């Protein structure tokens, strides 16, 4: 029997929802149109909920919805369209902020440059607003029985490259929105599940043992790469996720900004100078124009209008246009240049002072990022079953490509990326990769997330993968005080690469102690390329091999001990069912209180 579940794609640019197993709807996941404010006083149900929040000025009155007549903010299409007129009141790219390790993701920082009457909110609260809109719409109109989402299983898709903190914050936002039974699923896996579901039994005609599927997910704010190998075991096919790339803040948002700068130069030549506010408005307008041009082959150009900010601009709105030929040329050559397999993203020197903002990729060439991923992962995956390489192991060589994300709906962009990839493969003596015929890239992740509920119950093919990184905790070594020298740090592996959700690792005994009753800092590290480390393995110099993650600053309760006591402990680690890492310290000689300390990676500590 098909499991009853709801799948949600909480995207950078769009959010989508699908359900499966509900009475009278068959066994296939069904995307749902989401009721939303599309213009003042007008509510419509649309397949996608744009991931934008707009905070109205008090003069606008309420932005009413059928279930909330007094609402003063909007989520969805109306919020996105208002971005072209009031950009300082609109929040966008919240998912990118949620993954930003350089800020306090619970701090009120959005929208940036907000006017005085707008109270800023945190990236977690923005994610909650998107999910809460889905919850309210579900109960009011989407569920035929009017039951809340709390009564259903919810599969929430997140980028494969999300760190443990971003995953846990996403779960927190879902809980706040009333979703009680939540499981996280990596977006590339969801996209492949959607493809398997759409293909039915025919998927075996496209994939066979030894194949490696490269999932290329280019959305509004991020680019993610994953590799999934097809293996045969005991006569049955299995799928194993063998590689995950870094979380690259590069996508449709960068393309919108590129188009806006080009149009701004054209306007400047005509004597029309835009201020910063108008540039934000122009960028929002370019987003809509770009999406229309790339999705409708019959449209040759789209007008772009920027509101006027003063009499020096002739007292009226500024008008220009985007042409299809210009869009394709700028985006293909600028973001998908033809490069060789040895190319790497260029790094640039950063200014000593910078505004607080997203850590965007410094090189816009997505093909360079792909080359770096395939080269870097070839060595890391060489010991794994299902590995296929080209050029004496220098390149992880996919046999098939599955595209996902709104950007790759554009035929010209998809073709350039595939041509470049196949040029690398044939030069290295490997066969060209083929495209897997896909679903609608905007809805595939939500559909695949819903389909995954049945997979969890043993129906259908499951993608094995576990954690996308190996995780380590820093252990400080004792040493005499030396001016300017910090005590050395050893990194202890607490979760090997690929550790499955819902599993626990008892670490080998170490002479470790936790400090209780006073503020301390836990340092964590991660690696997407170290595959051979087992739980308990140690690295003497983590700076050379690992990426340091967000630390935890916390005071562990003393529970009857003296402040500052060092308590000898044994460590256990667990990857929870929702995909977060839990580190547990248990005293060798606990007090009668049964003390035990738990630290959830990068987010919170609980007693």
Key attributes of the depicted protein:
single chain, 607 residues, alpha+beta, Nucleotidyltransferase, domain 5, Actin, Chain A, domain 4, 12 helices, 34 strands, 26% helix, disordered C terminus
What's a concise summary of this model?
By secondary structure, the chain is of the alpha+beta class. Helix 5 (187-199) packs across helix 11.
Descriptive account of the structure:
The chain has 607 residues and is an alpha+beta fold. Among the domains are: 5-185, Nucleotidyltransferase, domain 5 (2-Layer Sandwich); 252-335, ATPase, substrate binding domain, subdomain 4 (Actin, Chain A, domain 4, Alpha-Beta Complex), CATH 3.90.640.10; 470-606, no CATH class. Helices cover 26% and strands 27% of the residues. The chain has twelve helices and 34 strands. Strands 1, 2, 3, 6, 10 and 11 form a six-stranded mixed β-sheet that branches. A six-stranded mixed β-sheet has the order 20-19-12-13-14-21. β31 and β32 form a beta hairpin. The protein is globular and about 75 Å long. The model is unreliable at 311-315 and 602-607 (pLDDT under 50).
Please compute the radius of gyration using only Cα atoms: 25 Å
What is the CATH superfamily classification of the domain at 5-185? Answer: ATPase, nucleotide binding domain
Q: What summary fits the major beta sheet?
A: 6 strands, mixed
**Average of per-residue pLDDT values:** 85
Q: What CATH first level of the domain at 5-185 would be assigned?
A: Alpha Beta
Number of helices: 12
Helix and strand content put the structural class at: alpha+beta
Distance between the termini: 40 Å
């Amino acid at each position: 029997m098909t499991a009853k579940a709801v799948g949600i794609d909480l995207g950078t640019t769009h959010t989508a929802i699908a359900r499966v197993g509900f009475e009278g709807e068959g066994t296939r996941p069904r995307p749902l149109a989401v009721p939303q404010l599309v213009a003042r006083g007008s509510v419509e149900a649309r397949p996608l909920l744009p991931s934008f929040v707009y905070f109205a000025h008090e003069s606008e009155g309420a932005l009413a919805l059928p279930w909330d007549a007094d609402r003063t903010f909007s989520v969805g299409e109306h919020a996105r369209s208002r971005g072209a007129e009031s950009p300082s009141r609109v929040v966008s790219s919240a998912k990118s902020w949620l993954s930003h390790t350089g800020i306090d993701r619970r701090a009120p920082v959005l929208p940036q440059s907000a006017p005085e009457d707008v109270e800023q909110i945190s990236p977690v609260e923005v994610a909650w607003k998107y999910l809460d809109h889905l919850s309210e719409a579900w109960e009011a109109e989407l569920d035929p029985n009017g039951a809340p989402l709390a009564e259903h299983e919810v599969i929430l898709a997140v980028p494969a490259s999300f760190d443990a903190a971003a995953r846990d914050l996403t779960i927190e936002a879902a809980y706040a929105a009333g979703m009680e039974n939540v499981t996280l699923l990596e977006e590339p896996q969801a996209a492949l599940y959607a493809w398997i579901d759409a293909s039915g039994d025919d998927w075996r005609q496209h994939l066979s043992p030894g194949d490696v599927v490269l999932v290329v997910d280019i959305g509004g704010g991020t680019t993610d790469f994953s590799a999934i190998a097809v293996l045969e075991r005991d006569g049955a096919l299995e799928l194993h996720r063998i590689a995950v790339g870094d979380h690259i803040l590069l996508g449709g948002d960068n393309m919108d900004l590129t188009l806006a700068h080009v149009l701004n130069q054209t306007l400047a030549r005509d004597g029309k100078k835009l201020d910063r506010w108008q540039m934000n408005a122009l960028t929002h307008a370019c987003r809509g124009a770009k999406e229309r041009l790339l999705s409708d082959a019959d449209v040759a150009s789209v007008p772009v209008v920027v509101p006027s900010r003063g009499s020096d601009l002739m007292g009226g709105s500024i008008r220009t246009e985007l042409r299809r030929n210009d869009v394709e040329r700028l985006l293909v050559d600028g973001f998908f240049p033809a490069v060789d397999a040895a190319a790497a993203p260029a790094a640039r020197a950063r200014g000593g002072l910078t505004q607080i903002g997203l850590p965007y990729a410094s090189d816009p060439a997505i093909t360079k990022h792909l080359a770096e991923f395939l080269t870097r992962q070839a060595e890391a995956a060489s010991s794994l079953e299902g590995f296929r390489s080209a050029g004496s192991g220098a390149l992880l060589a996919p046999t098939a490509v599955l595209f996902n994300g709104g950007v790759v709906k554009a035929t010209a962009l998809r073709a350039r990326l595939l041509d470049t990839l196949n040029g690398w493969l044939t030069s290295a003596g490997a066969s060209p990769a083929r495209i897997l015929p896909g679903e609608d890239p905007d809805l595939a992740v939500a559909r695949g997330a819903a389909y995954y509920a049945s997979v969890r119950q043993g129906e259908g093919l499951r993608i094995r993968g576990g954690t996308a990184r190996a995780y380590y905790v820093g252990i400080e070594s004792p040493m005499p005080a030396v001016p300017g020298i910090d005590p050395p740090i050893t990194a202890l592996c607490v979760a090997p690469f690929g550790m499955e959700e819902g599993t626990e690792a008892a670490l080998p005994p170490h002479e470790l102690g936790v400090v209780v009753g006073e503020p301390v800092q836990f340092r964590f590290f991660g690696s997407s390329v170290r595959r051979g480390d087992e739980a308990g393995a140690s690295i003497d110099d983590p700076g050379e091999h690992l990426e340091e993650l967000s630390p935890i600053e916390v005071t562990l309760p003393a529970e009857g001990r003296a402040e500052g006591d060092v308590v000898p402990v044994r460590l256990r680690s667990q990857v929870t069912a929702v995909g977060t890492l839990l580190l547990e310290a248990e005293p060798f000689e606990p007090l009668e209180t049964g003390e035990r300390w738990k630290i959830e990676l990068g987010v919170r500590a609980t007693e």
